[in-house]
Amino acid sequence: MAPIHSLLHTHANQKIADRREAPDGTVFCSALQHLGIKYGELTEPMPAAPVGRIRDADLPTLRGVGQAVWEAVYSTKKQILVEVRRAGTSGGHRIPRLAATEPEAERLIHEVHVETERIWLAEPAELGNLHRGLIPSRAGTHGTVLPTLLFVNGETRPLGYAAYGGLIRAAVSGMPMDSVREMARLLVAVPAEFLDYCGLDKLGDFTQRFLACLDRLDRADFLAVTRHLALYINCLGAWNLHLFPWDAADPLRQQRPAETGSTR
Question: Could you tell me if residue 89 is inside a domain?
Answer without folding.
Answer: no
